[in-house]
Amino acid sequence: MTQIQAVAVPGIPMLATGDDVAAVISSHLNTVRWPDGYVGMRGDDIVVISGKIVAKAQGRWHRLGEVPDGFRTRVGIPDGLGLKEPDDADSAAGQIRRGLAARFGGRPGVIISGSGHGREPGRGVVDIALGSAGLEVRGPNGDSVIDAIAALAGVASMGLDDSPVVVVRGVPDVMTWEDLPGH
Predict the structure, then answer these.
(1) What's the CA gap between 166 and 69, in Å, rounded?
(2) Which secondary-structure segment (H or E) carries 129?
(3) How far apart are CA 16 and CA 83, in angstroms?
(4) 121 CB-near residues (< 8 Å, 6+ apart)
(5) For residues 181 and 91, is the Cβ–Cβ distance under 8 A?
(6) Which ranges in 105-166 belong to alpha helices (H)?
(7) Residue of 164, 86, 157, 154 lying closest to 124 (CA atoms)
(8) Cα separation of 153 and 110, whole Å?
(9) What are the residue boundaries of the Coenzyme F420:L-glutamate ligase-like domain, all occurrences included (predicted)?
(10) How far is CA 30 from CA 9, 23, 93, 133, 176, in A?
(11) Distance, CA of 166 to CA of 140 (rounded, Å)
């Protein structure tokens, strides 16, 4: 039986335009504590990163009201500014993946997540994948699996403002060696 685990990564600092996301989050990934006592990340884990911190690193700022905001909450966004969703989230996920692989070995999967609304009024908001790298999304149900992983990460980080990164372990049959963008 497969056991899927998701652990929020605390202490991620605010990112600024031009920051290397993989470099900023790496030291925090080294300190992740798993329920079985294991500390750190393995090369076959999946790292789910809030699209908000990727957008900040990309400099996707705009004056509030000029264009629609890409995020439903204003946490971490200064007054008077808005933030658009990340540009080319699949490519950004691939870049982060290569940065993490260089630091940790292996080829961890990377998902950049954002908020999607339920299909029916009153069903709330769930995290979905905006982009991914290292995960098979082209097969049957591929997008659904990636979105489910993003949603699980959203639950794991719920209410933790300093945890825009979650590591997921134990998802079978989704990892690939190649980046395979195309979400």
Answers:
(1) 23
(2) strand 125-133
(3) 12
(4) none
(5) yes
(6) 142-156
(7) 154
(8) 12
(9) 12-67
(10) 10, 12, 19, 21, 22
(11) 25
- C-alpha 84/C-alpha 94 separation (Å) is 20
Radius of gyration of the chain (CA): 16
SS3 content of the chain, % helix, strand, coil (to 5): 25, 25, 50
Q: Which residues, including other chains, have CB under 8 Å from residue 139's CB and lie 6 or more apart?
A: none
Length of the chain: 183
CB 32 within 8 A of CB 41: yes
The structure tokens 């990636």 sit at 146
Q: Rounded to two decimals, what is the model's pTM?
A: 0.91
Q: Supply the pLDDT for residue 77.
A: 86
Residues 115 and 126 sit within 8 Å (Cβ to Cβ): yes
Report d(CA 96, CA 74) in Å as an integer. Answer: 24
Measured between alpha carbons, how far is 99 from 70 in angstroms, rounded to an integer?
25
Query: What one-character-per-residue DSSP string does 22-43 give?
Result: HHHHHHHHTT-B-TTS-BS--T
pLDDT in tens, 79-124: 999 999 999 999 999 999 999 999 887 789 999 999 865 555 556 6
Pairing of strands 125-133, 109-117: antiparallel
